[in-house]
Design goal:
The protein has three domains: 5-143, Gyrase A, domain 2 (2-Layer Sandwich), CATH 3.30.1360; 154-234 and 408-452, Up-down Bundle (Four Helix Bundle (Hemerythrin (Met), subunit A)), CATH 1.20.120; 237-396, 3-Layer(aba) Sandwich (Rossmann fold), CATH 3.40.50. It contains 15 helices and 13 strands. It has helices spanning 46-51, 109-121, 131-138, 144-155, 159-169, 172-195, 204-236, 250-258, 301-316, 332-341, 361-367, 384-397, 409-430, 434-452, 458-466, and strands spanning 24-27, 36-42, 54-56, 69-74, 80-89, 100-106, 125-126, 238-243, 276-282, 285-291, 319-325, 346-351, 373-375. The strands form two sheets. Strands 3-4-5-6-2-1-7 form a seven-stranded mixed β-sheet. Helix 6 (172-195) runs antiparallel to helix 7 (204-236), helix 7 crosses helix 12 (384-397) and helix 13 (409-430) runs antiparallel to helix 14. It is flat, with a radius of gyration of 30 Å. The two termini are 36 Å apart. 44% of the residues are buried. The chain binds ligand FFO, guanosine-5'-triphosphate and magnesium ion (MG). The site of magnesium ion has 6 residues, from helix 8.
């Protein structure tokens, strides 16, 4: 058999010299019991390294790449560590774009650990979090938004989120970013050319063109922002605080929204003390609902602590649902709470609409102007779908989530910066302040360049890939 000379690490075959740190290895599947555990390697020389650990009918290096082979992983003493399948990828046709390989071991922490230890002892280095994907990025296999999308795919919590992440992984987001950057660059070049004119001689026609170009760029940026906002919602979800005075039915509403008796409900005001959190998914958007203690002034120290937490949730949530009892006239507590909610992202849930009406929608709209009021009955399960629709809409998932593109918070911030810079540029242009307009356009371009990942700094890459798990 041809594989005899490839008996790995038995002292007969000297290890090929590896430049240190070139070959990375890691477990690509979770630790613990499972069907299969996949170890992956990447870097120049990883096939030679695998030859010393894997014994099949023929050495892996002599097999056709991209085809699975059966064999055993053998330690330096000749002991079989596991029966495995192995595959090699020839550069550049691999995930990382480098020479790569995989060992598919029996699932379970021990076989995988033993095989990984062997690979490390043979000269591989344990990969850092996200290092495979980082190498794929460095080798131009993925752009930065695709790399970030890998994580979104992994973390998707709904089919809709997976679709949005899949679009980004296919490169849709990167394309859109590059398109905007290209247009911004054209505009900047146009503007620079005009700056060479003495001020009074700028042709009015050119000026009109420039304004129109900027308007269209702003429009495109806003469209993209909407699609990305949808993606953000699908990826990150919304933290929704259910707040209100005691006994209005916050816990009942939580339970009704979850269709599960999660929180304790009693007719006594002051039932809920601690925060009760639970997630439900609506139109693909994870809604993290937080039930809180009814807010009132209380002498009970325990209740007071709960109320403190309720107030903190009120401050920190992405969205507050102010729950009101429609069957009882508004109290001073209601009015105080309404005042403290003013200016925040808010929905009103007019609960207990199965009872004779004491509080009308109009009265609430007058109390919190511009705020949507949803009439519901937690008891009878009325109006809950509409309430959930509104939760998603209020945070910008209006229109459709259909064309949503998954992006990260980092990307969303850069897109926001782009929009703001374009807005300022437009105002400057209207006022014929050319230099200011050029500066703002420059800002927009640098924000977009951060998005397309052209020339990213090490710290940015550390931040992006540091979130990944080892082996991705
Ligand atoms: N076993 C295994 N499953 C996996 C991965 C992997 O690396 N290994 N992936 C990784 O995370 C994902 C799939 N992504 C991948 C993307 C490109 C290539 C690749 O080798 N592309 C080459 C060769 C294609 C070919 O066979 O011709 C290319 O595009 O040139 C592999 C995986 C999910 N499933
Ligand atoms: N008729 C009617 N009663 C409701 C409705 N929702 C809740 N209730 C009742 O109102 C009372 C208080 O409900 P909870 O859900 O405990 O109210 P809460 O706002 O969580 O109260 P605290 O935890 O004390 O702040 C209970 O008796 C519920 O059965 C509703 O839609 N209609
Ligand atoms: Mg409660």
């Amino acid at each position: 058999m041809t594989d005899r000379s490839f008996r790995g690490g038995d002292g007969e075959t000297p290890a090929p010299a590896l430049s240190s740190g070139d070959v990375i290895a890691a477990l690509a599947t979770p630790w613990g019991e499972g069907g299969i555990a996949v170890l992956r390697l990447s870097g120049d020389g990883c096939t030679a390294l695998l030859d010393r650990a894997f014994r099949g009918r023929v050495p892996l290096s002599r097999t056709e790449p991209w085809r699975m082979r059966h064999g055993h992983v053998i330690d330096p003493e000749g002991e079989i560590l596991d029966e495995v399948l192995a595959v090699r990828f020839a550069a550049p046709k691999s995930y990382t774009g480098e020479e790569s390989g995989e060992l598919h071991c029996h699932g379970g922490a021990l076989p995988a650990q033993a095989c990984l230890d062997l690979l490390l002892s043979l000269g591989a280095r344990l990969a850092q979090p996200g290092e495979f994907t980082r190498r794929a990025f460095a080798n131009g296999r993925l752009d930065l938004s695709q790399a970030e999308a890998v994580l979104s795919v992994i973390r998707s919590r709904s089919r809709e989120a997976l679709t949005a992440a899949g679009r980004a992984l296919q490169g849709r987001t990167g394309e859109a970013f590059r398109d905007l950057l290209g247009r911004a660059t054209d505009l900047a070049a146009h503007l620079e050319a005009l700056l060479d004119f003495p001020e009074e001689e700028i042709p009015p026609l050119e000026e009109g063109d420039l304004r129109a170009g900027l308007r269209s760029l702003k429009g495109r940026t806003e469209d993209l922002r909407q699609r990305c906002l949808g993606g953000m919602l699908l990826r990150e979800g919304i933290r929704v605080g259910l707040v209100g005075r005691p006994n209005v039915g916050k816990s009942s509403l939580l339970n009704a929204l979850l269709q599960e008796a999660r929180a304790i409900v009693t007719p006594l005001p002051g039932t809920t003390r601690d925060l009760v959190e639970a997630v439900t998914t609506h139109r693909g958007v994870p809604l993290r609902l937080v039930d809180t203690a009814g807010i009132r002034s209380s002498a009970d120290p325990l209740e007071a602590l709960g109320i403190q937490r309720a107030r903190r949730t009120l401050e920190e949530a992405d969205l507050r649902v102010w729950v009101v009892d429609a069957g009882e006239p508004l109290t001073e507590e209601d009015r105080e709470l309404a005042a403290s909610l003013r200016g925040k992202t808010l929905l009103v849930a007019r609960n207990k609409t199965d009872l004779p009406e004491a509080v009308s929608e109009a009265a609430l709209k007058a109390l919190v102007p511009g705020c949507a009021v949803c009439s519901v009955s937690a008891l009878e399960g009325v109006g809950l779908e509409a309430l959930k629709d509104r939760m998603v809409e209020v945070l910008g998932g209006s229109g459709t989530l259909e064309g949503a593109l998954s992006i990260t918070r980092r990307q969303m911030e850069a897109l926001d910066r782009t929009g703001e810079a374009l807005q300022t540029a437009a105002s400057a242009l209207e006022a014929s302040e050319w230099d200011a307009a050029a500066a703002c356009l420059g800002e927009a371009r640098s924000a977009l360049a951060g998005l397309t990942g052209q020339d990213p700094g090490e710290d940015l890459l550390d931040r992006v890939f540091g979130e990944f798990c080892i082996g991705k």
